[in-house]
TrEMBL record:
Enzyme Commission number, as recorded: 2.5.1.60
Cofactor entry: Zn(2+)
Keyword Repeat: yes
Species whose genome carries this gene: Iris pallida (Sweet iris)
Source lineage: Eukaryota, Viridiplantae, Streptophyta, Embryophyta, Tracheophyta
Protein name: Geranylgeranyl transferase type-2 subunit beta
Length: 314
C-alpha cells in the first residue's frame, strides 16, 4: 500500500492560498471561509498549522464579519450565513483566538435563526435544513452558549427528520443522505441525545455504503467518493459501529486518490484534486488512526486537542 504524502499535501494547501487568481479560487470565491476551514484543519491534522501566519488569517476572518447582525459571510462583503459563521468560529478555535469574538453578539445571531418548531434557517432568507441545525448547535457549543436556544426542540426537529431506514434527511420526509446523517448524528452527539438514534439500523445503512473498490458512497447506487470517508465514518464512530466496515480497504482507496506528484486528494482515483477532498481524505484517515496524524473529533470536526482546549481549559 502507498503512503500518505503528507509534505506534498501541506505544500498543495499552502499554495492554494497564494494562487488567489486561479480558476479554483475564482469558482470558490463565495466559499472562501469554508475553504479556509477545510484547508487549515487539514494542515493542523498534519501537524503543520504553523505553515500559515495567524496574523494574516485572523484579520481576514474578521473582515467577513457583519457587525450589525453578528454573523459571518463567505467572503469580505458577502451576506452572513450559518455555514460561514460555523467555519469562522472553527478557524478561530483552531488558532485559540475565540477571544477576538463578541460571543454575545455571534451567539445571538445563531440563536435568532431558530424557528418555533426547533429547526434552523441558514440565514434571513428562510431555507430550513438539518445542515443548519448542525451548524447552529456546533457553533453555540464551541461558544459555550447552547443555553441561548431551545435544545429540546432542536433535538425533536432533528429526530422528526429520521427515516424508516434509520438515516436522516434535510427536512421531515427528506431522503436519507450520508452528509445529512453526519449533521443529524453530530448535532445529537453534541446535544447529548444519541439515544434518539437507532444505532443498529443506522449502522447497517452506513456500512452498506462501502463499495467493492473499498471506498464509501453517500447513497445506494452511487459511486464511491472520498468525501464520504468523512460523512459516513464520522457517523459510524459516533454510534460506535465503525468496526462494521473494512478499514484497510478504505485506507487503500483514499491513498489511491492522492496526487503523488503535486499533492492534494481527489474524489476518486485519477480525478483532479481539490481542498475539500484533501480534507475529507486526511480526516477519514485520521478517524481510522492512520499513523502520524492528529486525531479528529467526529462531532466537532476539529482536532481532539482543540476540542479539549475549548472544554477542559483550567
Ligand atoms: C453532501 O454534500 C454533504 C452534506 C449534505 C453535509 C454538509 C454539512 C455541512 C455543510 C455542515 C458543516 C460540516 C462540517 C464538517 C463542519 P454534496 O452536496 O456534495 O452531496 P452529493 O454527493 O449528494 O452531491
Ligand atoms: Zn465528494
Amino acid at each position: 500500500m502507498g503512503e500518505l504524502e503528507s509534505e506534498k499535501h501541506v505544500k498543495y494547501i499552502v499554495s492554494i492560498e497564494k494562487k488567489k487568481d486561479s480558476f479554483e479560487a475564482l469558482v470558490m470565491e463565495h466559499l472562501r471561509l469554508n475553504g479556509a476551514y477545510w484547508g487549515l484543519t487539514t494542515l493542523d491534522l498534519l501537524h503543520k498549522i504553523s505553515a500559515v501566519d495567524p496574523e494574516e488569517v485572523i484579520p481576514w476572518v474578521m473582515k467577513c464579519y457583519d457587525e450589525d447582525c453578528g454573523g459571518f459571510g463567505g467572503n469580505i462583503g458577502h451576506d452572513p450565513h450559518l455555514l460561514y459563521t460555523l467555519s469562522a468560529v472553527q478557524i478561530l478555535a483552531l488558532f485559540d483566538r475565540i477571544d477576538v469574538l463578541d460571543v454575545e453578539k455571534v451567539s445571538g445571531y445563531v440563536a435568532g435563526l431558530q424557528n418555533e418548531d426547533g429547526s434552523f434557517t441558514g440565514d434571513i432568507w428562510g431555507e430550513i435544513d438539518t445542515r443548519f441545525s448542525y451548524c447552529a448547535i456546533c457553533c453555540l457549543s464551541i461558544l459555550h452558549s447552547l443555553d441561548k436556544i431551545n435544545v429540546d426542540k432542536a433535538v425533536n426537529f432533528i429526530v422528526s427528520c429520521k427515516n424508516l431506514d434509520g438515516g436522516f434527511g434535510s427536512i421531515p420526509g427528506g431522503e436519507s443522505h450520508a452528509g445529512q446523517i453526519f449533521c443529524c448524528v453530530g448535532a445529537l452527539a453534541i446535544a447529548g441525545s444519541l439515544h434518539r438514534v437507532d444505532r443498529d439500523l443506522l449502522g447497517w445503512w452506513l456500512c452498506e455504503r462501502q463499495c467493492k473498490d473499498g471506498g464509501l458512497n453517500g447513497r445506494p447506487e452511487k459511486l464511491a467518493d472520498v468525501c464520504y470517508s468523512w460523512w459516513v465514518l464520522s457517523s459510524l464512530i459516533m454510534i460506535d459501529r465503525v468496526h462494521w466496515i473494512d478499514k484497510n480497504k478504505l485506507t487503500k482507496f483514499i491513498l489511491n486518490c492522492q496526487d503523488k506528484e503535486n499533492g492534494g486528494i481527489s474524489d476518486r482515483p485519477d480525478n483532479a484534486v481539490d481542498v475539500f477532498h484533501t480534507y475529507f481524505g486526511v480526516a477519514g484517515l485520521s478517524l481510522m488512526e492512520y499513523p502520524g496524524l492528529k486525531t479528529i473529533d467526529p462531532a466537532y470536526a476539529l482536532p481532539v486537542d482543540v476540542v479539549n482546549r475549548i472544554f477542559f481549559r483550567k
